[in-house]
Structure formats: structure tokens, C-alpha cells
Design goal:
The complex is a heterodimer of chains A (376) and B (214).
Chain A (H helix, E strand, L loop, with lengths): L6 E9 L5 H10 L4 E4 L9 E4 L7 H14 L10 E5 L5 H10 L9 H4 L3 H9 L4 E5 L5 H15 L4 E8 L3 H9 L23 E8 L9 E10 L12 H14 L8 E3 L6 H14 L5 E3 L2 H4 L6 H15 L1 E2 L20 E2 L4 E8 L3 E9 L5
Parallel strand pairs in A: 4-5, 4-6, 9-10, 9-13
Antiparallel strand pairs in A: 1-7, 2-3, 6-7, 8-14, 11-12, 13-14
Helix pairs in contact in A: 2-5, 8-9
Chain B lengths: L1 E14 L8 H4 L3 H6 L2 H12 L6 E5 L5 H12 L6 H5 L5 H10 L5 E4 L5 H12 L6 E8 L5 H4 L8 E11 L5 E2 L13 H11 L5 E5 L1
Parallel strand pairs in B: 2-3, 2-4, 6-7
Antiparallel strand pairs in B: 1-5, 1-7, 4-5
Helix pairs in contact in B: 3-6, 7-9
The chains are: A alpha/beta (376), B alpha/beta (214).
């Protein structure tokens, strides 16, 4: 297979922590969380802490606006020769829930194009003319798997440009579902803290244009490695020692042709649940003896489910560009002392970073980014 | 870009109501696990056994996903009744292949695509690119939507409410003898059509090789 360099040509994101990538990154550095308590989501009226986008626009309007902003900042004039890889775990679920409730429990007005997983791609294809598209849906690794496929398409020389979009709108199903599993927190999440209380379901949109071409205005970050694995352990709980997570990270390092010791920063999946953070922490400890900086940004953005892979890769790329390691907001007493979890923002050059996403069914993905400088 | 895939084995199941004889007791000896499996999971596990799956990487497709679990959840929310954690954990699109990976202790990559009526074509395209790593792959597309309110959703009047098709493939430089011509199979969900077409052609072709265009 061809192995030309793959650059992040343009990127954009929206979530509860901000309406564009600059706003979100500022929120991360200033510790301004998008997580708020709501009492209108859980069936029993109990309050829960979730991340809703604060905007007068609908989710679909924000989706289209984000892609238009990205296009305006790219060297491309349009997407006519671009492949669209979408990652979403719920697609049009929120729309379908509203119809179902409005129609008093009837499914007759549910339209598949608006309800299904394909709904995000349907909206984007309607607004922008892509050459082709595929939607990935592997729960919380959906957009990470879309990124993995994008790299494979570019490596194979099948396309010059691939737009990867991660998008998940908050829905009653996900909020009540995670509550039923007992992992939804009533306060802001505290990833890797010994007293963590669970996760914050959130909504978000992230978009990354990957290209063989370097956009001199923005692209100094390359996507150099991807790794995927399965835990083969349990449908919801990760392997307790993080065996699958470790495998995905090792595969991503192998794919990037670098050694674990070269990683400077890891943007963890770090959901704030007891099971995930212990397993991921143990996997990081086992693989990275040099203790790179580790952080979860979900205490600010919440867990954007299928969108988190792209959103957190954008955050990682911005951390590399701005030479800063974001603090672990809400972390007061870390559970695993061997982990290098900064509790304040640190100025630091990040040459290689790794970004994790894990999902139901033990689906694991890891992605390695490289910062291109004159020195390397 | 065109990639040729050798079809090493393929299998198809379909039923108007419920696919019978899925060999659940043999394939899933642990009762607790067997009881948690969704219909699509049972079909996926059966199909994998029929094509000689031996822990290859898996590319799975489903247009409608776990329809029963999804409807159960939304009805539970609407009726303000207790939501089942099992229904939620079984509601994601990659549920069938997650169970397959657990059952077979397969730690390799598993991915799931969903593109409504182009779902099986997306499985083929994804599989073609991933096959360039030169290992064997399991490609599979399953849709099971025999739910209580199916008549409210089934606007295409499909009669086969459970269907699945699977094939074991590997990349080849040999000349293709099967091409996707978008044949239709009126009774079966369109989400399976392209893979179903290839399966049927492969049954009548010696050394079947399909050309996938990206």
C-alpha cells in the first residue's frame, strides 16, 4: 500500500463547551465546563448532569454550518471529489423520539432517512455534494473507526481528500440508557479520580478534513497511525486490565512506526466511569513506562459518544499546535498514582500524541498524531 | 479504484417471520450468554459458523440495527416504565458482532457500517479497502426487524423480516468474474441486496471473484 503523508487540512467542532474549535479549546484551558444539570431528560424527573449545545440553531443547522466553516478554511472549493466518512452512534434518534412522543406512541410517521444511523450522512449529502459516503456505527468509537477507514482510503490512494464527521445529538435514549446502566453522573465527571461518579452524556459535532495535500495555513499535524482491537470480554464492561485497550494502542504505535517512548501526550477516553478509567489507566501504565502526560477532556466537553473520536482528535491536534497540555479538570485525587495526570495546563512541545476511544462490545481504537516541525 | 475480492465461502439465511435452526445451543453453549443474544446476534453467529469463520477481522452492516431493543427503550421512556439495562446495551448497531467476538474470543478489529439501502455495498467497499492488508475478512450484513409494530414501519411491504448474508473474502490480483449490477430482491431488505447478489452469483461461479469499485 502507498504510504504518503496524511495531513489534517482543516477541522471544526461544536459541543456544550463552545460553538467552534477556538471557543472549545479556550474552555478547556480556562476550565469552563459545558456540563449542566437538567431535570427534563430522565423519565423519573431526577436531575442529571449532561452536555447540551447552547445555541438557537437546531443540531442539523449546526452540523451544516460546521462543515461550511471547515470548507471555508480548506484549500478545497467543494467536496465533489471528497469521500465522506461519518461516525455516529444514534443518527436521527432524537428526531425519531420527538415524532414518537408527538404521535402518542405511533411509528407511522417515522421516516427512515431521518431516523436511521444514516441520517447524518443524508443531511450532509443533501447540503454538500460528496463523491461517496459510508457511515460507521460502533457506539462510542464510531467516529474513530471512521478516521481509521479514512486513513486506509488515503493510504490506498483511493482518494485525495476524506472528510470525517463525528456527530451525535443528545437523546432520551442515551441519557436514560446510561442511567439504567448506573454510570450516569449527577455532577460533572471526574475522570481518573478515585471518587469519580460516572459520565456525562453530551452532544457534539466534529469534522476533520484529511488530505495528502498540506494546507500551509493550518496543517502542521499528520495522522500517522491507527490501531483497532476487540476486548472479547463483555458487552458493556472493558477488560479489567485494559488488555484490548493496550492492544489497540500498540497497533497504532506499530502502524505509526514509532516506539511507545516517543509519545508525549495521551488524550484518554477517560469517561469518568469506574470501569473505563481503571482499565484504561492500567493499559497506559503497562505500555508507557516513561509516563507521558495523560488527560481526559470529557470533564469539559462531556462524553459526546460517537462524536468523541473526532472531537478529541481535534482537541489533541490543537494542543500540539499550541504546545500546551490541558489540565485534568475536576481531578483532585487520582486513583492510579503511577499515571502522569496534570492538574494544571502545562506548556509543553508535543511531537507525538495518541488519542483513545473505547466502546460497548469491547471495541477499541487508538490514533497517533505527529506534529511536523522544521526540526523533524 | 477497483479491488478484487475472492469469495472463499458465502451463506444466506432469510425468513418471513423468524429464522429457524440457527443452532444456538451448539454455537452458544453458555445459557446466560445465549439468553442475552438479540435475533440479529443469533443470525450473525450462525452465518459466521456457516462460512468457516476462524477469528478473522469483521466488517458488519445493518441498516435498521437492533430494532426491537430500540423500540423497547423508546416505549419504556414514553410510558415512564423502568428501562432495561440489557435492552440498552443490546441497542447499538455493533451488538451482533460484539457478541460474536466475545463468543469466539476474537481480539481483532470489528467494525460496523450503516447506510440504509446501501448498507451491504458499504460493507463491500469497507471490506475491499481493509482487505489490502492481505488477511482474510468476514463480511456480513444482517437485518432483523420482526417487531410488534412492524406494520407501522414496513412501508416497502418486505415479507422477509429476518435476513442475513455473510462471506469470507481475501484480496486477489486474479481477474474478476462477478460484478455488482444492482439486482433487486423484492422480498428482502434492500440493505442486503448487493451482498445477496454476489452470494447468488458466487454459488454458480467457479473460483468466484468480485470486483469492488470505490
Amino acid at each position: 500500500m502507498q504510504q504518503n503523508s496524511i495531513y489534517i487540512e482543516a477541522m471544526e467542532m461544536v459541543c456544550s463547551a463552545g460553538l467552534n474549535k477556538e471557543e472549545i479549546f479556550s474552555s478547556l484551558l480556562e476550565g469552563k465546563t459545558g456540563i449542566k444539570q437538567h431535570s427534563d431528560f430522565l423519565s423519573d424527573g431526577t436531575r442529571c448532569a449532561i452536555g447540551r449545545i447552547d445555541s438557537e440553531h437546531t443540531f442539523n443547522e449546526l452540523l451544516i454550518q460546521s462543515i461550511q466553516t471547515l470548507l471555508d478554511n480548506a484549500t478545497l472549493k467543494n467536496f465533489h471529489n471528497t469521500f465522506l466518512a461519518v461516525g455516529t452512534s444514534v443518527g436521527g434518534m432524537a428526531w425519531a423520539e420527538n415524532r414518537f412522543i408527538e404521535d402518542e406512541g405511533s411509528l407511522t410517521k417515522i421516516e427512515l432517512k431521518k431516523q436511521s444511523i444514516h441520517a447524518v450522512a443524508h443531511t450532509l449529502k443533501h447540503s454538500f455534494n460528496f463523491k461517496d459516503a459510508i457511515t460507521f456505527s460502533t457506539a462510542c468509537t464510531s467516529s474513530s473507526n471512521a478516521l481509521v477507514f479514512a486513513k486506509e482510503l488515503l493510504d490506498a490512494g483511493a482518494y485525495e481528500h476524506v472528510l470525517v464527521v463525528g456527530a451525535d445529538e443528545i437523546s432520551l435514549t442515551t441519557v436514560n440508557g446510561f442511567n439504567a446502566l448506573g454510570v450516569l453522573s449527577s455532577e460533572g465527571s471526574k475522570p481518573f479520580d478515585s471518587k469519580r461518579t460516572g459520565m456525562n452524556v453530551s452532544e457534539g459535532i466534529g469534522a476533520i478534513l484529511l488530505s495528502h495535500q498540506k494546507n500551509h495555513r493550518t496543517s502542521d499535524i499528520q495522522l500517522v497511525g491507527t490501531g483497532c482491537s476487540s476486548d472479547a470480554h463483555n458487552i458493556t464492561n472493558p477488560h479489567p486490565e485494559g488488555a484490548g485497550a493496550k492492544m489497540a494502542m500498540q497497533e497504532a504505535l506499530n502502524n505509526a512506526k514509532i516506539d511507545a517512548s516517543q509519545i508525549d501526550y495521551i488524550n484518554a477516553h477517560g469517561t469518568g466511569t469506574m470501569a473505563n478509567d481503571t482499565a484504561e489507566g492500567k493499559a497506559v501504565q503497562a505500555l508507557f513506562e516513561h509516563k507521558p502526560y495523560l488527560g481526559s477532556t470529557k470533564s469539559i466537553t462531556g462524553h459526546t459518544l460517537g462524536a468523541c473520536g473526532v472531537i478529541e482528535l481535534i482537541i489533541t491536534a490543537m494542543a500540539m499546535q499550541q504546545e500546551v497540555v490541558p489540565a485534568n479538570f475536576n481531578l483532585t485525587e487520582q486513583e492510579l498514582n503511577e499515571l502522569n495526570l496534570p492538574n494544571k495546563n502545562l506548556s509543553h512541545k508535543i511531537n507525538y500524541a495518541l488519542c483513545n476511544a473505547f466502546a460497548f462490545g469491547g471495541n477499541n481504537t487508538s490514533i497517533v498524531l505527529k506534529r511536523v516541525t522544521h526540526e523533524n | 479504484m477497483k479491488i478484487n475480492l475472492k469469495i472463499l465461502n458465502s451463506h444466506f439465511v432469510s425468513a418471513t417471520d423468524k429464522c429457524e435452526n440457527l443452532e444456538e445451543k451448539t454455537l452458544v453453549p453458555k445459557m446466560m450468554l445465549r439468553r442475552r443474544l438479540t435475533r440479529a446476534s443469533k443470525i450473525a453467529i450462525f452465518l459466521a459458523s456457516k462460512v468457516g469463520y476462524k477469528n478473522e477481522r469483521i466488517i458488519f452492516g445493518s441498516a435498521y440495527g437492533e430494532a426491537k431493543a430500540t423500540i423497547d427503550i423508546i416505549e419504556s421512556i414514553y410510558n415512564k416504565t423502568l428501562l432495561s439495562p440489557t435492552a440498552f446495551q443490546n441497542s447499538v448497531h455493533n451488538t451482533p458482532v460484539s457478541y460474536l467476538s466475545i463468543l469466539s474470543e476474537n481480539t481483532k478489529e470489528v467494525t460496523t457500517v450503516s447506510d440504509l439501502f446501501d448498507t451491504s455495498l458499504s460493507v463491500l467497499k469497507t471490506g475491499a479497502i481493509k482487505a489490502l492488508k492481505k488477511d482474510k475478512l468476514l463480511l456480513m450484513s444482517v437485518d432483523a426487524f420482526n417487531i410488534d409494530k412492524v406494520e407501522e414501519l414496513n412501508k416497502c411491504k418486505l415479507t422477509q423480516l429476518e435476513s442475513g448474508v455473510a462471506m469470507l473474502v481475501e484480496v486477489t490480483q486474479e481477474k474478476a468474474n462477478i460484478f455488482v449490477e444492482n439486482e433487486t430482491f423484492a422480498k428482502t431488505s434492500p440493505s442486503l441486496w448487493q451482498m445477496l447478489e454476489i452470494h447468488h452469483k458466487a454459488q454458480n461461479t467457479q473460483n468466484p471473484i468480485v470486483e469492488i469499485e470505490l
